[in-house]
Amino acid sequence: MKNNSDYIINYQALKLGHTFYNYDVNDDFMHDYNPDFIALKDLSMHISIDLLKEETSAQLFINLTGSYYVECDRCLHDLKIDVSEDNYLIFREGNGEDDETITYISPNTNFINLQPFIYDFIALSIPMRHVHDDEANCDQEMIKKLKEYLIEE
């Protein structure tokens, strides 16, 4: 497990051009950042970051690859979610209103903590609805109980 300081980059010391960062995170990463976050189990995620430093900004190309388990909304058993996605983030010097991809920083910013951004991208990878693709993959005893109590109109 990495220390929180492992996710802090020295923005002022970065040279113009590409800098690469790689992180492997697990359940401890999510729990350490937010102890109330319990939606994921057996998280195993590799994060690759290609940071392109320019004169007054930095572009981050972030790739998440891995998997975790969530509780199936239908049968309450574990459901494996595989993740392979690319994200994009910009740190721009100056003033402005942050949005989904742009975060404004002071021109005097020395350090940037990537941990909250990594946490957010993992959390955003969780589907709104998590159910097995096929009901046949669900716990059949639970499906039987659900049908027993189903009220049809």
For the residues shown, what is the average pLDDT? 90
The number of distinct β-strands equals 7
Shape: elongated
Q: Which range best describes the helical content: under 10%, 10-25%, 25-40%, 40-55%, 55-70% or over 70%?
A: 10-25%
Nearest-angstrom radius of gyration? 20 Å
Model description:
The chain is α+β, with helices and mostly antiparallel strands and 153 residues long. It has one domain (4-149). Helices cover 18% and strands 42% of the residues. It has helices spanning 27-33, 115-124, 140-149, and strands at 8-10, 17-26, 41-53, 57-71, 78-93, 102-105, 111-113. The protein has a five-stranded mixed β-sheet. The longest helix is centred in the C-terminal third of the chain and has 10 residues, at 115-124. The radius of gyration is 20 Å and the shape is elongated. 13% of the residues are buried.
Which features would summarize this protein structure in a list?
153 residues; alpha+beta; 5-stranded mixed beta sheet; two-stranded antiparallel ribbon; 3 helices; elongated
